[in-house]
Amino acid sequence: MVAKYDDDFWEQTLSLNLTAPYLLTKAFLPKMIAQKWGRIINISSVAGKIGFPFGAAYSTSKHGLIGLTRTVALEVATQGVTVNAICPGPIRTSMLEKRIRFNSENEGIPIEEVEKSFNSIQRLLEPQEVAAIAVYLASDEAKSMTGQSINIDGGMVMH
To answer: Is 58 a catalytic residue?
Structure first.
């Protein structure tokens, strides 16, 4: 709950998820503009498009990253640089697996059922599925795609 949120956790989350991409963009963008080519691919989250209870810092940071993505995309749209964000849903990672175990134990639901509950396809995404979108966005085939926030979430936002 926001009223009881840990301010240090808030600052740490925004620093990692929003300030770090901002600083990286700021550092690399001048060279991209000078060479008239570049690809910035931010990793946001579907949490940047929807809120969720007890996730204020994470969701806020990812909403902000989508805003940064769109702003920079507009600023460099005619300079050969594209700026996009990938918005994954539940990906099979060690961090998510800890949350799934926690949910399973606290709710008395088998792990498999918790995993199925996250999205319409009823499975976690694999990291390679997200990587494939990044490879496309980095390619010349995506030269006309900029300012986009692309969901890869197994239908989670629709779910």
So the answer is: yes
When pLDDT is averaged across residues 146-154 and rounded to a whole number, the result is 95
Residue limits of CATH 3.40.50.720 in the chain: 2-89+137-152
**This prediction's pTM:** 0.90
Q: Give the residue from 135, 139, 138, 125 showing the smallest Cα distance to 45.
A: 125
Question: Per-residue b/e over 46-74, b at no fewer than 16 CB within 10 Å?
Answer: bbbbeeeeeebbbbbbbbbbbebbbebbe
Angle between the N-to-C axes of helices 7-14 and 56-75, in degrees from 0 to 180, rounded to the nearest 10: 30
pLDDT value, residue 142: 97
- Among 5, 22, 58, 136, the active-site one is 58
Does residue 115 carry a pLDDT above 90? no
Fold of 2-89+137-152: Rossmann fold (3.40.50)
Amino acid at 45: S
